[in-house]
Amino acid sequence: MLRYVLGRLLGAIPTLFLIVTISFFLIRIAPGGPFDLERPLEAKVMENLNKIYHLNEPLWNQYLLYLQSVARLDFGPSFYFRDFTINELFAESLPISIQLGLSALCLALIVGGILGVSAALRQNKPADYSIMAAATLGVTIPNFVVAPILTLLLGVWLGWLPVGGWNGGAFVNRVLPVVTLALPQIAVVARLTRGSMIEALRSNHVRTARAYGLTSYMIVVVHALRGAILPVVSYLGPAAAALLTGSVVIETIFGIPGIGRYFVQGALNRDYTLVMGTVVVVACFVILFNLLVDLLYALLDPRVRYD
Amino acid sequence: MTSETKKTVLSIKDLKVDFETATGTINAVQGVDIHVQAGETVAIVGESGSGKSQTMMAAMGLLASNGHTRGEVIYEGRNILGLPAGKLNKIRGAKITMIFQEPMTSLDPLYTIGRQLAEPMVVHGGLSWKAAKAKALDLLKLVNIPEPERKINAYPYEMSGGQRQRVMIAMSLANDPDVLIADEPTTALDVTTQAQILDLLADLQKRLGMAVIFITHDLGIVRRIADRVYVMKTGEVVESGETGQIFNQPAHAYTRMLLDAEPTGHKLPVPDSTPVLLEAQKVSVEFELDSGFLKPSHVLRAVDNISFSLRKGQTLGIVGESGSGKSTLGRAVLNLLPAGGRVVFHGQQITGKSRAEMRALRKDMQLIFQDPFGSLSPRMTVGQIISEGLMVHEPALNGRQRDERACQALEEVSLDPAMRNRYPHEFSGGQRQRIAIARTMVLKPELVVLDEPTSALDRTIQKQVVELLRDLQKAHGLTYLFISHDLAVVRALSDTVMVMQRGKVVEAGTVDAIFEAPKSDYTKELIGAALLPQQQMMETA
User: Under an 8 A CB cutoff, do B120 and A212 touch?
Assistant: First the structure.
């Protein structure tokens, strides 16, 4: 088990190396540079800036320098937020994004799971149809539409919840962004759970459980749901990545100082180090989550244990 | 056995089961009366679709949600049919238990054997988990599971089909039931395993005295274990009575048809002067297992140095249990798998030929599969399926000519050519197997490898397919390599028989030599377990 985890973590290093390399050269292909402003800087100033940030050196040398600093977990200074290093920026924003994403993920799992199971147990009955119709809505309505509507309704008209800001992570400030972020995921989880649950309820071993007079809790939760949850677990990896990166819109609308806005600002301002930093951080999270998902899968299904 | 003194434990009275489907109501069971007495074994016999399983499923409250029941199921003076789940759960799993046809999937793959055995005891017997686990161990010993202390913590996927069925039997006995319903419990198992499971059931019944309702389509089993028999056809009991009476004086035509459905007859041998069509010399197939990174690979010899030769018009029967390598051998002979050794077809060595080189020969060497449901593409019409091979092997034919050939092939397998515009799902299992045979025959092959072509079919259908294969062989001088675990069918079709075990040939010889005077212990065991009709006649005589 430990060997497996170590192997997977070591295996992530070449993956990360490839990601760093490709994105380093990709962003350099984009025309313009971090100091190209609407009113061009004086040539002398430009030269000095380029010298400080090693931008005057050959590209491969810059690449090697960047690799060295990344290996020391130093993502370098930001070109745009002049007074901050990337590490400082992330130290503040990353925890907020993680909290936001994880809360949304948990909410999606719990609510989506319950909805999916209820729908499966009432297959082809009104409750099933309404849950699935709601799920379709949840997937199709984009969150930049849901967010303003919820803000207007609960924040402005009813005044129950603040319309924006993070406020150090106070509960009332979290509700709207987490719900908005979770809605499409709730829909996907509900659909996945319903499908696999229907299949599980029809399976032979659940028939055995019914034939042996087990309680409905044992039939539904112990025997059917544990197998039915497996496809949902597989979906958790991509879902976590989507929540972390998909928070750009939510963070902008609700004015939350998370990592999401750096994607946009970094790319628009050619802030090379910022873009690279976000890419590396997100890649790390995707890899880590996929590992966690595989471990969880093995925990649930004895047929895929890694010994 | 004097039946008057025995108490009736379960009686089904005028049971009707309907299924609401999109195309209308299906009356699956139409007024069935069945009863079973303490300590008695009752068999319900019938072909697939006769409603025998649905009758017992209805009694146990296990019908699909679109199923409706009427009638009575009396247990201890009370009608249990249609009881709410809460009340029914006091009886099912405790007093009336069930084992199923599919040992591979009837246990939950995610929990240990011990945990699953313990569940009904905790729920019904009020035992603690610890006490239930301890009793589960005793049960595993009772059903003769090897190494019970280790197996109690094993998962179902770590056990063979026979062992899983033993676990199911253990589970059914956990709460000391009055009635055990066994729904085709040995159909998915090898013959030797089937014999062991039947012995175990008979032995346990003798010791524990419960009543057994045994659902099966296999008359060999019925003759061996049942006291009384109910014969079912299209949802009705057409005949019932003592086993001896049913077998010796069947009153109903359907019963007589079932009894006659055992494949019979012999194949006429071909003259010795006939040229050899296929020769296999020291054919071996190896599979690498577990060959992971930095892990020594483990090699499994699925087929180990097998040689045989087959004259034109002959049939070689290859017999063995699952995992014996008989199907792998069939594929190796057709050069569908990389294999060692030499295979000579028509004086031409085919081992080592590339796929492109093989293509010209494929027309003459064809393969028919076991699964009549999975081996026909569901999105093509029967006509397209049959004529598809012609497009590759006889590209000169135009569409009309191909269609004509497809019609001829369908006629040859006794299907109406007008059916060629339908899709496979509209046909029964037996008809589909005929379509699969027509697809082969349209190419006019010389050698046909038949991989368990009759195993998924009912006995009466099986007999028809066997006769069809025999007629086709006679008409076209076909050479068959017939792979099967069913000894009765092999005996009816083959000139020579080869018995395989773990990739090796245990014994080979003419049909008569193998069946009348088997030499090796394994062959004797196989034949003993196979419940062949003639041999049972001799035993009872």
Answer: yes
Strands B179-183, B8-21: parallel, antiparallel or unpaired by DSSP? unpaired
Rounded average pLDDT over B199-204? 90
What's the confidence (pLDDT) of residue A108?
94
Window 180-219 of A, Cβ < 8 Å to B: 203-216, 218
Which two three-digit tokens encode residue A167? Answer: 């406020």
Q: Give the count of beta carbons closer than 10 Å to the beta carbon of residue A255.
A: 14
Q: Strands B496-501 and B504-510, how do they pair?
A: antiparallel
d(CA B436, CA B421): 15
- Sign of the alpha-carbon dihedral angle for A37, A42, A47, A53: negative
Q: How far apart are the first and last CA of chain A?
A: 6
Question: What backbone phi and psi angles, to 5 degrees, belong to B24?
Answer: 125, 180
Question: CB distance from A221 to chain B under 8 Å?
Answer: no
Nearest CA in chain B to A7: B293
Identify the pLDDT of residue A54: 81
pLDDT of residue B539: 45
Determine whether the interchain pair B89/A218 forms a contact, defined as Cβ–Cβ distance below 8 Å.
Answer: no
CB contact under 8 A, A214 and B168: no
pLDDT tens readout for residues A100-133 = 999 999 999 999 999 999 999 998 889 999 999 9
Closest listed residue to residue B451, CA positions, set B364, B332, B541: B332
Chain B residues 87-106 within an 8 A CB cutoff of chain A: 88-94, 97-98, 100, 102, 105-106
**How do residues B152-175 score in pLDDT, each as one tens digit?**
999 998 888 888 999 999 999 988
Q: Residue written as tokens 């014969």?
A: B231
Summarize pLDDT for B411-436 with one digit per residue, the tens.
Answer: 999 889 988 888 888 888 888 899 99
Single-letter residue type at A215: T
Nearest-angstrom CA–CA distance, B480 and B315: 5
Report which secondary-structure segment, H or E, holds B510.
strand B504-510
Among A202, A203, A205, the strongest candidate for a mutation testing the B interface, having the largest count of B CBs within 10 A, is A205
- d(C-alpha B176, C-alpha B257), whole Å: 38
Distance CA A183, CA B404 (A): 59
Residue type, B332: A
Q: State the best of A204, A208, A210, A218 to mutate against chain B, taking most chain B CBs within 10 Å.
A: A208
Mind giving me the DSSP string for B380-436?
S-HHHHHHHHHHHH-TT--HHHHHHHHHHHHHHTT--GGGGGS-GGGS-HHHHHHHH
β-bridge mates for residue B42, sequence order: B213, B228
If one counts every other C-beta atom within 10 angstroms of the C-beta of residue B214, the result is 23
Q: Structure pTM? A: 0.80
SS3 B343: strand
Residue B110 at interface with chain A, using a CB cutoff of 8 Å = yes
Beta-bridge partners for B447: B365, B479
Q: How far apart are CA B478 and CA B471, in angstroms?
A: 10
Q: What one-letter code names the amino acid at B23?
A: T
Tell me: pLDDT of A195 over 90.
yes
Question: A303 CA to chain B: closest CA distance, Å?
Answer: 7
> What are B359's two structure tokens?
């293509």
The predicted-structure confidence for A144-164, as pLDDT tens digits, reads as follows 898 889 888 888 898 888 888
Residues of B in contact with A207 (CB under 8 A): 62, 100, 106
Q: Measured between CB atoms, does B231 come within 8 Å of chain A?
A: no
Search chain B and give the residue with CA nearest A208.
Answer: B106
Name the residue facing B105 among A205, A214, A222 (closest C-beta).
A205
- SS in 3 state form for B76-113? CCEECCCCCHHHHCCCECCCEEEECCCCCCCCCCCCCH
